[in-house]
Structure formats: C-alpha cells, structure tokens
Amino acid sequence: MRASKYLLILIPLLILAACKQKGDSTAGNETPDLPDTTEVRAIPAEQLITPGKSIGHISLGGSLDSLVQMLGRPDAGDAAMGSQLSTWYANHDTAGYQTSVFSRRNMGNKDEDVSRIKKILVTSPWFKTAEYMSTGNTMKDVSKYYTLKEGNSYQSKQGKTIKTYSDIAKGISFEIDGAGKCVSILVHAPNSTADTYLDMH
Fold first, then answer.
1. What's the pTM?
2. Is residue 139 assigned to a domain?
3. Cβ(64)–Cβ(72) under 8 Å?
4. Cβ distance 115 to 109 under 8 Å?
C-alpha cells in the first residue's frame, strides 16, 4: 500500500522532469520572439509630406509672409510678374539641404496683396510621405506607391541630368538622378500640370 502511494507521487514527478528536460534540450535551437516590425510608425506632422497639400508645416495656399515669419528671411529668391521663388538652406549653407517655395499673387482678386504658396520643394530625407518615401529612395521604391509620368529635366549644379516624375492626380513629383535615386520631392496642386512643371532651380 505504501509502495503504491509512493508510485502515485513519483510518476507525476518523473513526467514533469522529462517535460522540463525536453524543453531545456531544445531551448538553444528555438527562435526567440521578435518584436513586430510590420507595424509602421506614423510620421510626425512636422515631417509629413502630404501630396497635394503640404510638406511639414508648409501648406499650399498659405501665405508666404506667414512662412517668412516662421522660417526667417530666405537665403535666396527671385521675383517677377507677381510670382516669387524663396529658398532656405540648412544652416544657411548653399551646400546644405534645400527648402524652396514658389508663390504667386492672385492679381485682380481682393487678396492680391498676399503671395500664396503654389509649390513646395524639399531635398532633406527628414521629410517623408505616409509610405515612408523620402529623398534617397529609388525610383523603384517610389513607383510602388505612385503612378508616375515623366516630365521635364534639368542640369544640377554638379552637371548631372535630373528628371522629374509626377503623380499629377495626387499632386506630388519626385526628381530622380541618373542613378535612379530621388534627390528632391515637390508638392503641388492635384491635376495641375502648370504647377507641376514650374522650374524651382
């Protein structure tokens, strides 16, 4: 009777030990649980590129004067016939990242004294679309999210040919170098080819 009592206690202990030993013997070969990297972090508002609307805190239709109050006096600019191009460089260095804004006065309208932002260009990879597209991405990357049509081209300061590809319906353009890499991103009004092909260089 006493022997059977000990057996009832001993058998579960042996089973438990066997299970533990089996678990320990395979522990070194198991793949540890990794954090879920499929969840993409939302882009903060000050970095977000929104096609047809804005880049960061700069919005299409906004006042150039208000932007100057926010960013300070532009490092470079040009104006003619009610239109204006204003450019800011990172650390005021022309070799640094560039933010350019094309604005225009609505001549004859009641707010003709206000120069309204029509087009925004950035070269810094700090700014990103909701899909995490930024300068530095390839044409192949960008094409996954945007329907692009080839537009004009220009020569960079380094003498390289840069081509513009636009998703006109969404209001965004990507300037691509000869290696297929994005060097600048532009936001403009959707379905507006006139705003798409304005030269900002």
1. 0.76
2. yes
3. no
4. no
